[in-house]
Every structure is written in C-alpha cells, then in structure tokens.
Amino acid sequence: MTIDPQPADRARLVLDWDGTCTVVDTLWLLLEEFGDYDVFRRAGEQLRAGEISYRQLMELEFSTVKGAELAAVNAWLADHAEIRPGFHELVERHDPLVLSSGFEELIRPLLARERVEVELIANRVDPRPDGWRVIWNREQPCEICGDWCKRAGLPPGPFVYVGDGYSDRCPSLAADRIFARAGLAEYLEAEGAPYEPFEDLQDVLRALES
Ligand SMILES: [Mg+2]
Ligand SMILES: [Zn+2]
C-alpha cells in the first residue's frame, strides 16, 4: 500500500516568494541595484497611501530598470539573494505552490541554484533595454480588491497561506490559516484577521506538524 502524500482533504500550502522564501525581497534588491531608487521608494509610499494601484506600482518601478540584461541581473541575484531557512524542508515535506507577483524569469534561476523543484505561479517580464515591462498573468482585475492581485492563482479547496507583503493581503484573506511576517502581519493585525507570526520557515514547518 502506498501513502498519498497529498490527501484530498489536506490544505494546500501556498508560499509567497519574495521576503517569504527569500530573506530579503529580490525585487527590492534588483530595483535598488538596477532601477531608480527614488521612484521605488516613492511608489511604495504612494501605494500605501492609496494613491496608486499595485499594478501601477509594479509597472512604474520596473520601467526604471533600463539597459539591464536579464542574464546580468540573474547573475547578480545569484550572488545576493538568500533563501530563508526552512525552505528546503518545507518544500520536501509539503509540496507547496509558490505564488508570486514577481517574475518567473528571476525566480526559476534561484530555484535551480537551490536545486528545488516546486510548482510556481508568477508573472513574467519583458526585459526591454528602454525599461522592463511587466507581463501580467491575469487579464482582469481581482473581483475582491480591484487590483492585479494574486488571488486568481490560488488553488481550489482549503489552503494555508504564508506571506510578508502588500501583494499577499488579498490572497491571504481567502486562506484557512495564515502565517505572516513584516508588512502582512501589520496589515492583518490592523484588520483584526487571525494569523500566526513566523520568522523563518522552520517556524511554519513546526506549526504545521505540531
Ligand atoms: Mg513578499
Ligand atoms: Zn484581490
């Protein structure tokens, strides 16, 4: 008899990528190194003030990445991006979905560096010399938040969500159980939504298995 590692009634584990599976958000690292830091900083303030949408923020920020070859950016990220402790164990034991509003072209090379195979849903990027363009993986805004959020990529059925940032707000609120840190934790706290705090992914693994 074989044991099914993913019984149908078991909640799927959904992980944000940047700032969740990585220690520091790789998009922030990239924008600081290859983009316009002032635009990046201001866009974050405008988003939090409700002056621009998440879609506008992403398109604005990455339009400032000019003349940067994708291969050069990935080589730089390979040297600077750090994976959060516990990631490998969590993937091995829970076969998660990685759900990111970042770009497949940047995430897949890091997964390859880590020798990790995992299901990934992310956006794509067209790294044009005159400024990177976001290629969104959805054609309509979210019915719940009205923005180009990650909710459309959620699996059917019950799921556990692990995240840290703005783009996790809408999808996490659909979860049966939320693990949060940093900005997402502050947001959920303010919303009065229950969540469990985490620092590294060992915390999540321990909580899932206790
Ligand atoms: Mg994040
Ligand atoms: Zn949404």
Describe this protein with a few key phrases.
9 helices; 210 residues; seven-stranded mixed β-sheet; binds magnesium ion; Rossmann fold; globular; binds zinc ion; alpha/beta
Task: Characterise the protein shown here.
The chain is of the alpha/beta class and 210 residues long. It has a domain at 12-23 and 82-209: HAD superfamily/HAD-like (Rossmann fold, 3-Layer(aba) Sandwich). It has nine helices and seven strands, in the order E-H-H-H-H-H-E-H-E-E-E-H-E-H-E-H. The chain has helices at 26-34, 37-48, 54-63, 70-80, 87-94, 104-113, 169-172, 182-191, 201-209, and strands spanning 12-15, 97-103, 119-126, 133-135, 159-163, 177-180, 196-197. It has a seven-stranded mixed beta sheet. Helix 2 runs antiparallel to helix 3 (54-63) and helix 4 (70-80) crosses helix 6. The longest helix has 12 residues, at 37-48. The chain is globular. The mean pLDDT is 95.
